[in-house]
Design a protein that fits this description.
binds oxalic acid; Phosphoenolpyruvate Carboxykinase, domain 1; alpha+beta; binds manganese (II) ion; nine-stranded mixed β-sheet; Phosphoenolpyruvate Carboxykinase, domain 3; Phosphoenolpyruvate Carboxykinase, domain 2; 3 domains
């Protein structure tokens, strides 16, 4: 290790940090070690190294670079991601596990000399605002300058936080190696990809990959460690955005948190025009001393899906993607120094370079499938501070008070666009019974309906029953639990056409915001409270400036008793394999009895919300 690095390390006075670096230096055998502090020059140098090593290439707009992941490394790899469990312990059947000793031995072998000929970067970050009650320091070891650079855009630098640790081991650590690279700086050995989570030592190993969902320790790998910690104490670590909601012509901000599976509208909800964003992916929630729920974004950047970002639907992000600033594009098409992606709303060239190498229209993969101009899961990485609509409280160490939580899935045939839970426990039930169709954010087939509790299942590393019990208990600690809502932006008609426009979500969110302040009445249904037609008509008029017909309302808010009962049967089957808390069983039973009762009362499988409204009024 160079003298400078040695000094910076010694200054931390932390034996645990030193031991970890020594252990992985000895095992991975890098040629060089670069230790990065909070110094802006050192941080900026990482980007330069990513360019020099070819992991990123400069584009024509100042500050923009492009990075490519391997053709088979374009999403989170669930199959290769495993929780290492000590002998005698078990988790839920749904969690991919591996015996800890076996996993560590396998890693030891695969990581032996894996950084030979490469540079090892050691970086220090802080999850959450430094010095806050939420903060968790995190150390990243990686041989990828792209990973180290991405983290610079996505997380708060935390060398100073490691000082404050005063030698303790209360931090997470991540060891990543992209393994051998090809001439374009792309990981070669993706067939030997491993992502192993070691809860015992608060660390994650990830090798032979580069896609940030697999490689960037502080993102979904840290979320798993945080879920484990949260469940051992009394807080929540969630796959949630945080946003400030601003009703038209009212001087107030109401903070919302929302969990949606990847690629199901989480970023676009947090970016609804006229609102302010705090974060778009991961939040920690705590019961605050005044009995409210407070939350922080543990990140400070966005690793966003670029497909369909265009000047009409996402003007603020689009502006960032087309003007000078530090920003990384990944897996887009590049032609003549300019990036192109799917759904960007303008003509795209017929050739260029993308994640498949040199690309031309009509190019096919080894299975004969057409390769699109850019991957559907292509991304952009940038700091949140680049956004004009960043909420002024984003860096508040106390977080923001959360008044509402939303759970949303990609559901084409069951749930209405928005429904309000009857209370906290029914809200936990709504989150726990979320289903969603798979997307390109994970490897594997798209469009499959899957069980997606709290949109967090991919990251839950404790028994699901324990995780849900923690949610039920969390509400009990609050004097005023947030209202909980279920949303569904993806409802389709019998011909497969969406029943809503993308922008309609603004009306649902503003309706929910008004509910927080007791401003609208609502229609009681077996699955919760739905909006009244007249209130939505007003909201569509005042916020979206478009008409909202009774027919639209009747189709979107139809209560599909048959589908809802089928869903409940699927959910019950899922939970039969888990030791779910009794409160969940009670909520399932209560929901079923309401659905059956309404079916008997109305004598039909599908209920028109206008008729319900009238029946309730009479
Ligand atoms: C993400 C994901 O990238 O959840 O946020 O896959
Ligand atoms: Mn996510």
């Amino acid at each position: 290790m160079p003298d400078g690095a040695r000094k910076k390390l010694a200054a931390l006075n932390n034996r645990h940090v030193e031991d970890i670096i020594a252990e992985y230096t000895a095992l991975c055998r890098p040629d060089k070690i670069t230790l990065v502090t909070d110094d802006p020059e050192e941080r900026a140098r990482i980007r330069q190294i990513a360019l020099e090593k070819g992991e990123e290439k400069a584009l024509s707009v100042a500050g923009h670079t492009v990075h490519y992941d391997g053709f088979f490394d374009q999403g989170r790899d669930k199959a290769c991601t495993k929780v290492l469990v000590p002998e005698g312990q078990s988790l839920s059947p749904r969690i991919n596990t591996l015996d800890r000793k076996t996993g560590l031995a396998e890693l030891h072998q695969l990581m032996n000399g894996i950084m030979r000929g490469k540079e090892m970067f050691v970086r220090f970050f802080c999850l959450g605002p430094g010095g806050s009650a939420f903060a968790i320091p995190a150390m990243q070891i990686t041989d990828s300058a792209y990973v180290a650079h991405s983290e610079d855009l996505l997380y708060r630098s935390g060398y100073a936080e490691f000082h404050k640790l005063q030698g303790s081991d209360h931090f997470f650590h991540f060891i990543h190696s992209a393994g051998a690279l090809d001439e374009d700086g792309v990981a070669r050995n993706v067939a030997q990809r491993r992502v192993y989570i070691d809860l015992v030592a608060n660390r994650v190993f990830t090798i032979n990959n580069q896609y940030a969902g697999n490689s960037v320790g502080l993102k979904k790998l840290a979320l798993r460690l945080a879920i484990n910690q949260a469940n051992q104490s009394d807080w929540l670590a969630e796959h949630m955005f945080l946003m400030g909601v601003h009703p038209v012509a009212k001087e107030r901000t109401t903070y919302f948190a929302g969990a949606f599976p990847s690629a199901c509208g989480k970023t676009s909800t947090a970016m609804i025009p006229g609102q302010t964003i705090i974060g778009d992916d991961i939040a920690y929630l705590k019961a605050w001393s005044d009995g409210t729920c407070h939350a922080v974004n543990i990140e400070s950047g966005i690793f966003g899906i670029i497909s369909d970002v265009n000047p009409i639907d996402d003007p603020l992000i689009y502006k960032c993607l087309t003007t000078p600033r530090e920003l990384i594009f990944s897996n887009v098409l590049v032609n003549d120094g300019r990036p192109y992606w799917l759904g960007m709303g303008m003509p795209t060239p017929a050739r260029g370079t993308n994640h498949s190498g040199a690309w031309f229209e009509g190019k096919k993969d080894d299975e004969g499938k057409l390769i699109p101009l850019a991957h559907k899961n292509a991304r952009y990485t940038m700091r949140l501070s680049e956004l004009e609509n960043l909420d002024p409280q984003a860096e508040n160490p106390d977080g923001v008070p959360i008044s509402a939580i939303i759970y949303g899935g990609r559901d084409s045939d069951t749930n209405p666009p928005i429904v309000q839970a009857f209370g906290w426990e029914h809200g936990v039930f709504i989150g726990a019974t979320l289903e969603s169709e798979t997307t390109a954010a994970t490897l594997g087939q798209e469009g499959q309906r899957t069980f997606a509790p709290m949109a967090n299942l991919d990251f839950i590393v404790v028994p699901l029953g324990l995780y849900l019990a923690n949610h039920f208990k969390f509400g009990k600690r609050l004097n005023k639990p947030p209202l909980v809502f279920g949303t569904n932006y993806f409802l389709k008609d019998e011909h497969g056409r969406f029943l809503n426009e993308k922008t309609d979500k603004k009306a649902w969110i503003l309706w929910a915001e008004a509910r927080v302040h007791g401003e609208y009445g609502a229609v009681a249904t077996p699955i919760g409270w739905i909006p009244r037609y007249a209130d939505l008509q007003t909201l569509f008029d005042t916020t979206l400036h478009k008409p909202y017909s009774r027919t639209d309302y009747a189709r979107q808010f139809e209560i599909r008793l048959d589908r809802l009962l089928e869903k409940l049967a699927r959910i019950e089957k899922m939970y039969a394999a888990e030791s779910a808390p009794p409160t969940l069983g009670e909520q399932i039973a209560a929901q079923r009895s309401r659905l059956l009762q309404w079916r008997a009362d109305f004598g039909r499988e599908r209920l028109n919300p206008l008729e319900i409204e009238q029946a309730v009024a009479e």
